[in-house]
């Protein structure tokens, strides 16, 4: 089964923080990742970091519902000469991933063809927390035995440790699903699971 790492980063906001990025790069190197998948691209910081870290013939499949933020970072990725390593998948692919679980491995999409089961070395999930378990089920199909899956912000900014009434209304769904996600992961004895707390110096 893949190894898993949960990153918990305070004040990193949307983009992955540079120090957490260095940790991700280290894990990419440890598994000698060549084929990776990322859910949650934003402006592409973690995507660029991954592209810079994996070998020249490596491939990254990246999924986000919003391509507009990626366009902001794209000139930098292009300037770095790395765009050939990237496949940015569309919203439609995301919907497909979410809705057609039973048949997704028979889809026309390269990522989801049967040959891709267990073929990814590394996954980084940094998107909507309420869907983490859905992503996890899919990543467990796609990532090979001995691969690494990283989930961002598995303490949900610390809210998982607070009573629900002390958590802002809009953060409660994420808090609850993150608690359930962490409980399910820690109960899975097949996985090797590590949760890191990452606090940025301000
Ligand atoms: C925290 S940002 C990702 C940061 C990025 N990994 C980086 O290093 O800069 C979260 C991203 O998840 C995307 N997102 C949110 N909900 C999503 C969904 N349901 N499916 C795919 N992407 C989603 C958002 O559009 C946003 O770009």
Automatic annotation (TrEMBL):
Q: Which keywords are on file for this protein?
A: Methyltransferase, S-adenosyl-L-methionine, Transferase
GO molecular function per UniProt? O-methyltransferase activity; S-adenosylmethionine-dependent methyltransferase activity
Database matches in Pfam families: Methyltransf_3
Q: Which PROSITE patterns match?
A: SAM_OMT_I
Q: Which Gene3D superfamilies match?
A: Vaccinia Virus protein VP39 (3.40.50.150)
Any single GO BP term: methylation
Similarity comment: family membership = Belongs to the class I-like SAM-binding methyltransferase superfamily. Cation-dependent O-methyltransferase family.
State the function annotated in the UniProt record: Methylates caffeoyl-CoA to feruloyl-CoA and 5-hydroxyferuloyl-CoA to sinapoyl-CoA. Plays a role in the synthesis of feruloylated polysaccharides. Involved in the reinforcement of the plant cell wall. Also involved in the responding to wounding or pathogen challenge by the increased formation of cell wall-bound ferulic acid polymers.
The protein's name is Caffeoyl-CoA O-methyltransferase
Its source organism is Quercus lobata
């Amino acid at each position: 089964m893949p190894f898993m790492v949960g990153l918990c980063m305070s004040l990193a906001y949307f983009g992955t923080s540079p120090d957490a990025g260095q940790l991700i790069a280290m894990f990419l190197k440890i598994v000698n990742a060549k084929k990776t998948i990322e859910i949650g691209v934003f402006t592409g910081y973690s995507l660029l970091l991954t592209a810079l870290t994996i070998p020249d013939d490596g491939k990254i499949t990246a999924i986000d519902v919003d391509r507009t933020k990626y366009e902001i970072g794209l000139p930098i990725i292009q300037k770095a000469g790395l765009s050939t390593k990237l496949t940015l998948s569309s919203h439609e692919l995301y919907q497909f991933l979410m809705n057609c679980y039973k048949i997704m491995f028979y889809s026309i999409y390269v990522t989801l063809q049967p040959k891709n089961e267990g073929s990814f070395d590394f996954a980084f999930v940094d998107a909507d927390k309420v869907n983490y378990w859905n992503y996890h089920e899919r990543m467990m199909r796609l990532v090979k035995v001995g691969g690494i899956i990283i989930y961002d912000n598995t303490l949900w900014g610390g809210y998982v440790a607070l009573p629900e009434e002390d958590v802002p209304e809009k953060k409660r769904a994420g808090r609850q699903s993150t608690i359930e996600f962490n409980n399910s992961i820690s109960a899975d004895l097949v996985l090797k699971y590590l949760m890191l707390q990452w606090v940025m110096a301000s």
